[in-house]
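so the lab meeting is tmrw and i was supposed to have these ready like two days ago... anyway. pasting both below. for each one the top line is the aa sequence and the line under it is the structure tokens. i havent really looked at them closely yet so no promises
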Amino acid sequence: MRMFRNICLIGLLFGTSCSLSWAGDASPLFDKPLREIHTTLPPDPDNPYFKKPLLSCYYFRNFMVKQLDFGEKGAEQLSILPYWLKDNKEPPCLRANATDEMVIGPREWSGYFEGVKSDFIFFVSADGSDGGSSFAVFDAVDAWKIFVDAEKVTNNATEFTTLALLNHPENENDAVLELRYRRVYRAPCSLRADEKNCWSLIRHITGLMESLPPNCSIAYGAKEKAYPENATSLKTDPSVITYDVEVVLDSGSAVRVTPVSKAMECYPAE
């Protein structure tokens, strides 16, 4: 997956910090950080099972993104520190939080830093589900969570096909962000149990236009065959469908979410 969890290997072997340039394994659609700092922290005596806590700071034009990773599933802390009000002076990369540092609470998001496009900050979930990976988009100005969705994972990787800034339709001095990706949508119903009514509900929620649902019988049938003792209950498992979507965001909310393909797959939720 696209995650900025890169390590300056030589420096970290000796427990020192290091500043490095763009690591190169992240999507080129994201902005390149001005610089990165990765520091191995001393072990926490109160939590000896945390091995080599890693502090990472990613510096961009107007803000820094900080990630504290204890090696457990999901980062221990994700935060955003703007510095355009401080004569654009870069803050130090410290474990202690600055007074104006905006910490992303665990109820808001739990996972890892993914990337930046202009003032839009992407975080990815620590775990995948339903064949997809959840991501969230935050605004760098006030750490407002703008949008959450899930995209398809193929060969252990996810990838936006489009991530581009566009002119704002109402404010020429502002911009909006366009994303395109293969969406993973978990329906609130089962197409296997009640195809007609469930598909009508899915179309209403997603905006998918085709009148006929995708073929769900193969995936459901395989699961029912694998667990024959639960075949009856498995039919009611919520359906997951995938389809290509275009999303346009501004700094306040999702402006538009539009399907740009038919439903590609259908299978029972995990």
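ok protien two:
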Amino acid sequence: MVPTLILAILALELMILVHELGHLIVAKRVGIAVHAFAIGFGPKLFAFTAGETTYSLNLLPVGGYVNMAGEDNEASSPDVPPERRFRAKSVLARIAVVCAGPAMNFLLAIVLLAAIAVLYGVPSQVSTRIDKVVPGDPAAQAGLRSGDVILAIDGRTMTDGNEVIRLIHTSNGRTLSFLIQRGPARFLVHVPTKYDPRQHVWLTGFLPAVSRTHPDPIRALGWGVLTTGRDVVAYMTALGALARSGQLLGQLGGPVTAVNVLGQAAHAGGETFLYFTAFFSIIIGLFNLFPLPALDGGRAAFLLVEGLWRRPLDPRREGYIHLVGLALLLCLILALTVRDVMHPVHLTLP
């Protein structure tokens, strides 16, 4: 339990680290003076200074920050030359700085998915052979075993695992008749189905065997890019549906849920752990792009308005708005943490 918990915390810290590194690297690249680079909030656990920047690891691992000269107040950092302050840079340069954090989260997901492709292979074809049976689910109760081959369902010949999955998902609660090949024997098995409210499909409780290909590193990176892009679209669609239904806040999870889920994923194996780390990295990137005060997306929205108006906004007013947004965000994180502790999430990982 302890090793998986440590892995989960390290994975979360990695996502925060690459996010803040994105801001740091681009800020320094465009010539902005950076006073502080921190992972976490609260008291410092460890800190050192290199050049003009103090780097620190803080007690509460729920985020991080990059403190740039003149970011929220033009009068701040009087010892820094005006041309090295955040607000002295062009609108495009500042947008690049604030969007670099989410971009690094997407890049981390691409690298992790590419590592999965190289180490474990990319699923290429779903077969009709059963790989795993979930204990206690209808398939196990009906007597299905790992290695069984599904020849037909309800008299319909099955040659493609995707067709098997589609028929089960759309069974509407019917008991299905499976023609099974087990070694030299063939026999019929009647398998009930159960409804999964999270996926909104019917299931029997087994995983089909999947053929895999092992691409070279370049092709693996390409697969990582395509998969990340596909997942971004899928997650945005899902978030939009939750927002329209009024269920978004109810489905949000805080740092405790993230660590809990990552710990369970680590216990399930390296491939699952890498997948969930990539998943959370994408979610962090998307969340930070929301056009809300204190988030990167909110700062980018203010910069877009400034670019359209062709005149700078009042930095004090903008700073107050972001401060209020940060306070509300911390309150949300605290509320989610309390709920996560009282109602922990348990994954179903065969």
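from a quick look at the 2nd one: The mean pLDDT is 87. The two ends are 18 Å apart (CA to CA). will dig more after coffe
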